[in-house]
Design goal:
- By secondary structure, the chain is an alpha+beta fold.
- The chain contains 25 helices and 24 strands.
- The protein has 6 domains: 2-53, Orthogonal Bundle (Helix Hairpins); 82-309, D-amino Acid Aminotransferase, Chain A, domain 1, CATH 3.30.470.30; 315-402, Beta Barrel (OB fold (Dihydrolipoamide Acetyltransferase, E2P)); 431-519, 5' to 3' exonuclease, C-terminal subdomain (DNA polymerase, domain 1); 523-633, 5' to 3' exonuclease, C-terminal subdomain (DNA polymerase, domain 1), CATH 1.10.150; 639-713, BRCT domain (Rossmann fold, 3-Layer(aba) Sandwich).
- Strands 12, 13, 14, 15, 16, 17 and 18 form a 7-stranded antiparallel β-sheet that branches.
- The N and C termini lie far apart (91 Å).
- Bound molecules: 2-(butylsulfanyl)adenosine.
- The site of 2-(butylsulfanyl)adenosine (IVH) has 16 residues, from strand 3, strand 8 and strand 11.
Length: 714
């Protein structure tokens, strides 16, 4: 065994750094250094499978997924606990204790009841052997793999007794819960109703990598089986936990009389909102293990413990309005604007409604009286509607209609992708999405803009230099060079260097890569950079094979014919062939480009936002070309009637617009998607719309089909 020492050393070292980072918040090494040690261990473990250890820190990030959880018997039954709902019931419980023990005063503890999922950790000879859920109290699910990803649970204990079972609660801290639900809203997924559901849902995952990605934590609150540790009271057990650095539930009040119990319960009721996780009660327990044994158990719960449940705080208030937030990826999140109301320790005036489906489930309408609570005591949420108090004729709320099918931030098109619960704005120039879209736009697979990562994008947007990707092309080297960045952290992490600017050198590099994007980046990269839904790298490549330049896309017959085909995800494989469409047959379009992408392209180019993008590109003189771009030989168009003339087509004509495009191009003219000062004629049919208004305002002649025919004959 050449490497067993190094492997052991790395495991110990990584465990130490994990603890410094996750429990003490006092890291000693940089993330990069940690990653280096982690990879070294990973490589050695891969090369030495015989040295496998389920408690290796490399498994913190999650091992292979399971097919199902195995069931295992508990060493001692995992009982439930009796609930007390009023101070009188606490008094009755205390009297039973006094009677059972024949004492007036009894040493007890009062501590928070954590709103999570009960879990038993079994350590044998100092190594976490397995972890079980409560299950039916006798047998539980073996969730060891998932539990190993929870960072504040030690995987090995030093100088541990032969057997130690630690019982406690796995939960999701409020901050992590809020962030997770935000991410889910943003991703168009259903949010979790409360931290407990989020925890239970996460632990049920058979893929430990999912669990590793969720912010779960553990706090111990009780002793299970024990061999070899001499423990007389709960306090002895607490000291043992401290020694092993297993985090324990707190705060704990030590009390002896009914008055002291009630005082502790009231104090906890104030404090519990600031614990950083959900609590729904106070657990009262006898301190001394001998006294516990004297009191014993009923069939379902110990006689030596009880849980006082705080009444859930729910308040009625008026839902005055529903506003819409545009997230950084364009997701539109409805927010309830409430008549301010005091709930669980703070005033609540807003609560997320998550998405349209959630609004429909609860049937929330503007003007409703709603019931408000704090999910996990922290995050304001609308529980339900008091339908009896709904004013007559209150219409149902439908988000896209309320928004007139436009993004409130940029008036871009909005849509709800199949299988998602959220509506989103799909305009890559939307200012609310500026950071995300600029970062994507600059990405390696998009326009590969040197030195423009997310942190620089944030600064560009914050400093108001750029509100959207195309704004980048209006900036000078100096603009970039003077951009103020966050101060760099020095290596000791204590002192901060003062001002830090983007700098001349990086600015020049970035500016040059923008020039390259403007003149050399091929059409497929631009199309991908624009982030149109369903237009990924391969669809962009196929589009680029089929078109010569970006300005060909808005009027493309291929796109409009393809968009009219039924969605071939729903067709059988044999019917998917685009040969079904006579016009498309000749192009041999591959599977990367289908009707759905075409519909998205059509919607985008026809939208107000899409038109603005085309006009901006036109103004910037940007018209990305495909690799197969070859200018039409001049000779071929020479002498044709429309040479040098640019047309825009709008309104309903006697034939589809692409037909007119073909005629114009065959006669030497060009067709562009949007009206600008460079447009020579607007060919307008019935209902010319915004393009006609724009042409008129720019003094661009507006012609009809008859006038075009005349031009062709002249
Ligand atoms: S002591 C024999 N202390 O509540 C049970 N339990 O409703 C002794 N719980 O399954 C339990 N916080 O998982 C105890 N501070 C706390 C607790 C706590 C939450 C859970 C526990 C139990 C459930 C009973």
């Amino acid at each position: 065994m050449l490497f067993d020492n190094r492997i052991a050393e790395l495991r110990a070292e990584l465990n130490r750094h994990n603890k410094l980072y996750y429990q003490d918040a006092q890291p000693e090494i940089s993330d990069a250094e940690y990653d280096r040690l982690f990879r070294e261990l990973e490589d050695l473990e891969k090369a030495n499978p015989d040295l496998y250890d389920p408690n290796s820190p490399t498994l913190r990030v999650g091992g292979a997924p399971l097919d199902a959880f195995e069931q295992k018997a508990h060493l001692l039954p995992m009982l439930s606990i009796d609930d007390l709902f009023a101070e009188q019931e606490v008094a009755d419980f205390f009297r039973r204790l006094q009677k059972g023990l024949g004492l007036d005063e009894i040493p007890l503890t009062v501590e928070p009841k954590i709103d999570g999922v009960a879990c038993s950790l079994v350590y044998r000879n100092g190594s976490l052997e397995y972890a079980l859920t409560r299950g039916d109290g006798t047998r539980g699910d073996d969730i060891s793999q998932n539990v190993r990803t929870i960072r504040n649970i030690p995987l090995s204990l030093e100088n541990a007794p032969p057997l130690l079972e630690v019982r406690g609660e796995i939960f999701m801290p409020s901050e992590g819960f809020a962030k997770l639900n935000e991410q889910r809203d943003e991703a168009g997924l259903d949010p979790f109703a409360n931290p407990r559901n989020a925890t239970a849902g996460t632990l049920k995952s058979l893929d430990p990598k999912v669990v590793a990605s969720r912010p779960l934590a553990f706090l111990a609150h009780g002793l299970g089986a024990n061999e070899g540790a001499n423990l007389d009271t709960e306090d002895d057990f607490r000291k043992l936990l401290e020694q092993f650095q297993i985090p324990r539930n707190s705060p704990v009040w030590h009390v002896r009389t009914l008055d002291e119990i009630l005082a502790a319960i009231r104090e906890l009721d104030v404090k519990r909102h600031d614990l950083g996780h959900g609590t729904d009660g106070a657990v009262i327990k006898v301190l001394d293990f001998d006294q516990r044994e004297t009191l014993g158990f009923t069939s379902r719960a110990p006689r030596w413990a009880a849980a006082f449940k705080y009444p859930p705080e729910q308040k009625e208030t008026l839902l005055k309005d529903i506003t819409i937030q545009v997230g950084r990826t364009g997701v539109l999140t409805p927010v309830a604007e409430l008549e301010p109301v005091f709930v669980s320790g703070t005033t609540v005036s807003r609560a997320t409604l998550h998405n349209q489906e959630e609004i429909e489930r609860k049937d929330v309408r503007i003007g409703d009286t709603v019931l408000v609570e704090k999910a996990g005591e922290i995050i304001p949420s609308v529980v339900s509607v008091v339908v009896a108090k709904r004013p007559d004729n209150t219409p149902a709320y439908f988000l896209p209609e309320a928004l007139n099918y436009q993004c409130p931030s940029c008036h871009g098109p909005i849509e709800k992708p199949d299988g998602f619960v959220a509506w989103r704005c799909v305009n890559f120039e939307c200012p609310a999405q500026a950071v995300t879209s600029i970062t994507h736009f600059a990405g390696r697979k998009a326009l590969d803009l040197d030195g423009l990562g997310e942190s620089v994008a944030i600064k560009l947007v914050e400093s108001k230099l750029a509100a959207s990707p195309l704004d980048l092309f209006t900036l000078s080297v100096d603009d970039f060079a003077n951009l103020l960045l966050d101060p760099a952290k020095s290596s000791d992490g204590l002192t901060q260097s003062k001002e830090r600017r983007f700098g001349e050198k990086r600015a020049t590099t970035l500016f040059n890569s923008l020039e390259k994007a403007r003149t050399e980046m091929p059409l497929n990269r631009w199309l991908f950079a624009m982030g149109i839904p369903q237009v990924g790298e391969s669809a962009a490549r196929e589009l680029s094979r089929l078109h010569k330049k970006l300005s060909d896309l808005p009027g493309s017959a291929i796109i409009s014919d393809l968009a009219d085909l039924p969605d071939f995800e729903e067709l059988s494989k044999s019917k998917r062939k685009k040969e079904n469409h006579p016009g498309l047959q000749q192009y041999q379009i591959d599977d990367n480009l289908g009707p759905v992408a075409a519909q998205h392209l059509r919607t985008f180019f026809q939208s107000e936002a899409g038109q603005t993008v085309l006009a901006k590109l036109d103004e910037l003189g940007i018209d990305p070309r495909s690799d197969n771009y070859a200018p039409d030989p001049v000779a071929a168009t020479e002498g044709l009637p429309l040479v040098g003339k640019t047309f825009v087509i709008t309104g309903t004509l006697s034939a589809p617009r692409p037909e007119f495009k073909k005629i114009i191009e065959a006669n030497g003219g060009k067709v562009s998607g949007s009206v600008s000062s460079k447009t020579d004629f607007l060919l307008s049919g019935e209902g010319g719309g915004s393009k006609q208004t724009k042409a008129e305002s720019l003094g661009v002649p507006v012609i009809d089909e008859a006038a075009l025919t005349e031009m062709l004959q002249s």
